Amino acid sequence: MMSRSYTNLLDLASGNFPVMGRERERRRLLPRVMTVPGSIAELDDDQAHSVASDNPSSLASDRMIIVANQLPLKAKRRQDNKAWVFSWDEDSLLSQLKDGLPEDMEVLYIGSLKVDVDPIEQDDVAQLLLDRYKCVPTFLPPSILEKFYDGFCKKQLWSLFHYMLPFSADNGRRFDRSMWEAYVSANKFFSQKVIEVLNPEDDFVWIHDYHLMVLPTFLRRRFNRLRMGFFLHSPWPSSEIYRTLPVREEILKALLNCDLIGFHTFDYARHFLSCCSRMLGLEYQSKRGYIGLEYYGRTVGVKIMPVGVHMGQIESVMKLADKEGKVEELRQKYEGKTVFLGVDDMDIFKGIDLKLLAMEQMLKQHPKWLGRAVLVQIANPARGKGIGLEEVQVEIRESCKRINEEYGKPGYEPIIFIDRPVSISEKIAYYSIAECVVVTAVRDGMNLTPYEYIVCREGALVTESGTDLSEPKKSMLVVSEFIGCSPSLSGAIRVNPWNVEATAEAMNEALSMEEAEKQLRHEKHYRYVSTHDVAYWSRSFMQDMERTCAEHFRRRCWGIGLGFGFRVVALDPNFRKLSIDAIVSEYSRAKSRAILLDYDGTVMPQNSLNKTPSAGNLLISSLHHSLAIEVYDPLL
């Protein structure tokens, strides 16, 4: 059941935090921190002392709460339609990352289901998922869900993060305040589910992807010392693109309420840091390989770590594909042919149409491949109602038809387009027989297709009859320079997918390269992929989050601000507020005095200055009152 958790939101709201079961005997590791809106000066020294804490507990006794838009579960109705049947989604990154966490660490998932559950069934389903899978479902109201996911997430954030600006109002691309409000409401729903099960003294919270970028503020307002990380699985755009978002500062400030923020590549992290610098005036520093943003006394960690694949799962599926005879079946089907392979989601940013044009151009420029080279393009079903998806699908089908009519002949089609659901074992079988994988996405957060292909080509498969089909290990890659995995694949042939002629030449080069060079590149890639798998990624993120949080526990913290302006101010343990009486007394006794007045950046950094000062007294506003400070010296 819900051990180590808060089950009554009314108790939370009133500040009466229940102690449950074995928690009664547990020593309080981290004293609760008071959240006080307003200025720091409103707290006295006694209150400041009360927030000092012990060091955080070790990982072995902690729990990880993973929050994402969707739970790593599959769901379907029973045949009698009387109940739901659930199972783990083994392909989900969220279920795979557990391998990198300590074995004795409890993992709890919070997210939505991929199916609609009738409101009268939701309580029973929630209890079932909690008991059997340690999953807490978030059931968003339909009125919020559509504007949240299909609206703000897909039409605005997803498009903008992939460098598509809303130049026209078609398809709802322009900023819509109601969609933003739905996004905030959905994040608040998620925060309520987290609070229901959260023990802030022992739990880590790891938030995933752009759907939940303002969730950190809701949680930080409630628990100032909560250990919290965020990882973005999509690209982060350049500051010139991001600054067009009307709620740009709200999202940045919300993310900065995390302790650690992760990105797949250096470029994504660099763009994020540039946004924080240009829009919030923040500075960052890099020490011993760690990047930190200084934010009101806290150092928010920024981590660069591309995710990897689950080696064990791929190897087990390879054995299944061989057992089912799929590899041998495909080898016979494409005997005498050299296979290019593309595996992409049906999405406007995957560049499938550009890949088809490059294949056409290669056949035109290098007719020696006519009748010999085949491009097998697997198009996974679209994940949502993407912008322009129907137009792209029509264009792809027309290109396939045109190329096959022009360059095909009886018994040979240069383009094999598969737009049906493909099982994992069948996809692995295609990886095993492909000479080269081509990825021409115009923008993609990571893309693990090349990694999966490399692992499959390393495996030695045998037929059911026992004949060894293993060959010298080699795997050729033509990859877009705009995808997250590109920097880690130094042996791949990188291309600008918009340059169709150059991509065609790269495809020809991949097939024409010397065998020894192909093997050398494959060995280099496999060493990296096998050592930087999903477990390595999650373990590395977890270690950095613990290290960053440990630094914050050494400081004294106050929560201030309203709305998305809320932040935690962290000060040195030796900090003491200035006493007005003491200042006046010392000033009166002093024989010589120096008053420093400046407005050009000598005392304060330029980016923190108010560029339009009034001619009167300096006015300092707090939440409850305004105080006019006038410098007056009766001794002068």
TrEMBL record:
Keyword Transferase appears in the UniProt entry: yes
Listed GO biological process terms: trehalose biosynthetic process
One Pfam entry name: Glyco_transf_20
SUPFAM superfamilies assigned to the protein according to its UniProt record, in alphabetical order: UDP-Glycosyltransferase/glycogen phosphorylase
Keyword Glycosyltransferase attributed: yes
Keyword terms, alphabetized: Glycosyltransferase, Transferase
GO cellular component: cytosol
Top-level taxon in the UniProt lineage: Eukaryota
GO molecular function terms noted in the UniProt entry: glycosyltransferase activity; trehalose-phosphatase activity
PANTHER family from the UniProt entry: TREHALOSE 6-PHOSPHATE PHOSPHATASE, TREHALOSE-6-PHOSPHATE SYNTHASE
Name of the protein: Uncharacterized protein
Natural source organism: Rhododendron williamsianum
